[in-house]
Amino acid sequence: METNPAFVQTVLHNTQKALQHMPPLSLSPGSTDFSTFLSPNVLEEVDSFLVRITSCCSTPEVELTLLAFALARGSIAKVMSSLCTITDHLDTRYDASSLISSMASVRQNLLLKYGKPLQLTLQACDVKGKEDKSGPENLLVEPWTRDGKC
After folding, report:
1. What DSSP element (H or E) covers 58?
2. Among residues 16, 39, 115, 118, which one has the fewest Cβ atoms lying within 10 Å of its Cβ?
3. Which domain of life is it from (predicted)?
4. CA-atom Rg of the chain in angstroms
5. How far apart are CA 134 and CA 57, in angstroms?
């Protein structure tokens, strides 16, 4: 890669262009958009190639490309590794607005698709009192005393 920087830039540009059309989690095994020709081995080779590019020519664009690929794969370990690399350059500006927007869009779509209201019910109440006010229905509304009674 050090001997042919034009090749690296071409591959990087094409990868960035492809990742613009791949939202986060689109390459994860559970995705409906997941392509069968992108086996885990192929994805691992792409990842290792991007890591090698990052090690030889670290720029904000390269680091964001690595992060976008990790997000597309849904790999928490790779996302954390990419974020650690980015935090090594806190004074550098990153143009990550489109990536953040894509992440927010995927999050919203998944919440709409799989989200359900969370209903909490009280199943039991460990109270010592035997009065009418010591039942589970009063646990959250009546003030407590020091001895655990409602």
Report:
1. none
2. 118
3. Eukaryota
4. 25
5. 68
